[in-house]
Amino acid sequence: MMNRRTWGLGAVLAIGLSLAGAAAPAQETTLRLAHYGSASDSVTAAAERFADLVAEKTDGAVVIELFGNGELGNSPTMLEGVRLGTIDIVTVGNPFFTGSLPQLNLLDLPFLFQSDAHAFATLDGEVGATLMSSMAGSGLKGLAFWELGFRNLTNNVRAIMTPADLEGLKLRTTPNPAHVLAFQTMGANPTPMPFAEVYSALQTGTIDGQENPVNHIYANKLHEVQKHLSLTAHAYTTSPLVINAGRWDGLSPEVQTALKEAAVEAAAHQRQINDEEEASSLDAMKAAGVMIVEAPDQAAFRAAVSAVTRAAYIEAHGTTLLDKIDALAR
Q1: Does residue 143 have a pLDDT over 60?
Q2: Residue 269, in any domain of the structure
Q3: DSSP H or E segment with residue 118
Q4: Quick one: CA torsion of 63, 66, 72, 73, rounded to 10 degrees?
Q5: Is the distance from CB of 163 to CB of 169 less than 8 angstroms?
Q6: What is the CATH number of the domain that holds 297?
Q7: Is 328 a domain residue?
Q8: Number of H helices, E strands in the chain
Q9: Collapsing DSSP states into helix, strand and coil, what is residue 320?
Q10: Which terminus of the chain is more exposed, N or C, with fewer CB under 10 A?
């Protein structure tokens, strides 16, 4: 498994501390934040920390009203709600952005990141800023990159050691083109669906398996309806926190600063939680009877999908940002 590196957390905190403190506006403002996570998911803790920090930084003049666990819709619906302005702020997995913002597909390329530190250096640096800026004109303003983490495979049919073991399996994936192409290449039947539908689809056998970070699998109880877990760490998923662009433009510069600062600090908080809970989540799933393949043939998975998925991205978007990400791994 990949070890999380604490310097990524420090980098995020440094960014947050460098921002100026926010002055309180004269009138109370309420902003509605929607997300996908259950009560025990780290995104819920991040959202709560964000709300507390915004209240603190604005002396209570800005209130963040939280709607978790898909209360305001599934991930595509919530994201569209922010674009339309019926929801103010949302965080959903990066793959749900790529339909209208295809350049963001870059972040979901299989085996793009060598470690958490590599991912954090990318997201918190020039590449992340460029991708956030690319949201201009889409009705969204990016605040910070929150995360799900490195994705791993679960299923109810067999242990997954090599790409050949995926042959014929019906797997829930994200709608991201790189994810779909990767699993098609390995012989699986990728089946994109909103996350809120995954538990019941696994329970009824509509799909054989799915792929998500360890913490996310456990927090959302997917291990209850899965027999096998393979620690492939085949892709990293970020979860951008974004606000409706019109709503953003209507806020004072002081409130904008408070929101950005709080978003970055909440990202650091979530990364720390995910780091601390990864081992305990694995232990709990093992104790619940899930059979875990801790060392699948990751080199074989990488060889099977990296070239084809990179080629598809490069054809559409070129190599500039990809080269910058690769350079950060050295």
Answers
A1: yes
A2: yes
A3: helix 116-123
A4: 130
A5: no
A6: 3.40.190.170
A7: no
A8: 12, 9
A9: helix
A10: C
